[in-house]
Amino acid sequence: MSDSEWLAAAFESHREHLRSVAYRLLGSMSDAEDAVQDTWLRLSGADADAVANLGGWLTTACARISLNMLRSRRHRREEPVGAPWPAAAEAASAAGAAGAANGTGEDGASGPAGAPANPEDEAVLADSVGLALLIVLDTLTPAERLAFVLHDLFAMPFTEVAAVLDRSADATRQLASRARRRVRGAPAGPDRSADLARQRQVTEAFLAASRGGDLGALLALLDSDVVLRGDAAATPSGRPAALRGAAAVGRGAVASGGRAAHSELAMVDGEVAIVWAPAGRLQLVLRLTVGPAGKVTAIDLTADPDRLAHLQIAVLT
Predict the structure, then answer these.
(1) Does residue 85 carry a pLDDT above 60?
(2) DSSP strand pairing (110-111 vs 222-230)
(3) Count of CB atoms within 10 A of residue 293's CB?
(4) What is the pLDDT of residues 217-228, one digit of tens each?
(5) Taking all residues of the chain, what is their mean pLDDT, rounded to a whole number?
(6) pLDDT-derived band of residue 190, with 50, 70 and 90 as boundaries?
(7) Measured between alpha carbons, how far is 269 from 35 in angstroms, rounded to an integer?
């Protein structure tokens, strides 16, 4: 085996790890693949014989490339494919709104390249990472995100993370701590624990019934006079709309089962809610109001980008 073949094989043995790191840092499979390929180009131009720990060297290089990409790219909102929950519900009820080959780099250096980003693969990967986590990571500064991902998710020592960020270890610890608080959110006080537990139980049951298309289970959860309201961005008509009654809301939830399959529970402004975030890009939030009898009395759908950007999202633990 030639030196170049050995180097390519060694790189391939680390590819999946590098892609995992880059994806959590960048939140995009296509960007992650670019970062991994740039890491290969950097390795192919380095003196590999002088690298004592190839895995550590590659992780550090990939993290630095990802950090530069985070700092330089412009925020862009991905457009969802297909209609959101409210559109499916509207179609069902006719009443309102509810419902990653080989390649060559630019410098001519040939080497291993992964498969191109595939939307379905990215959706699966996002689900495995956790949609709520990806949403929260997207709200962090590049330095906070890198410190949290490398230390908390990949157990990289703070001294090594600090070298990537070009900061002191103490400053890097503070970045990770600040990010950790954002990810976990503020803990619920004893006075709210019982309410949140009930809200979580009902919301989990609603999401499970929607995923399974179980109209009977949905009707058992919904108050007979439940009202579902969607903002203008959540409806096909582009105007705020409302859907009333358990039967109509239940049918809409069943019709939206495909979206429910890629939704997840999260803490939104301190309350348990359902988030729909294709590939980790927040597009829709469903907040359920649970009455004293344990029935859902209201559902509020938020899809307006400005309103979504101001929501405080945290991972539900």
Answers:
(1) no
(2) unpaired
(3) 7
(4) 999 999 999 999
(5) 84
(6) low
(7) 33
Please name the CATH architecture into which domain 190-314 falls: Roll (3.10)
Q: Across the strands, what pairs with 177?
A: none
* Torsion on CA atoms 251, 232, 300, 124, rounded to nearest 10: 70
Angstrom CA distances, 158 to 50, 116, 144, stand at 24, 33, 13
Provide the residue type at 180 as one letter.
R
Tokens of 272: 């348990």
Between residues 88 and 315, the one the model is more confident about = 315
Residue pair 140/179 in contact by the 8 Å Cβ criterion: yes
Asked if residue 15 lies in contact with residue 114, where contact means CB atoms within 8 angstroms, the answer is yes
How confident is the model at residue 111, as a pLDDT?
A: 62
Asked if pLDDT for residue 151 goes beyond 60, the answer is: yes
DSSP string, 93-161: HSSS------EE-TTS-EE--PPPP-HHHHHHHHHHH-HHHHHHHTTS-HHHHHHHIIIIIT---HHHH
Return the SS3 of 3.
Answer: helix
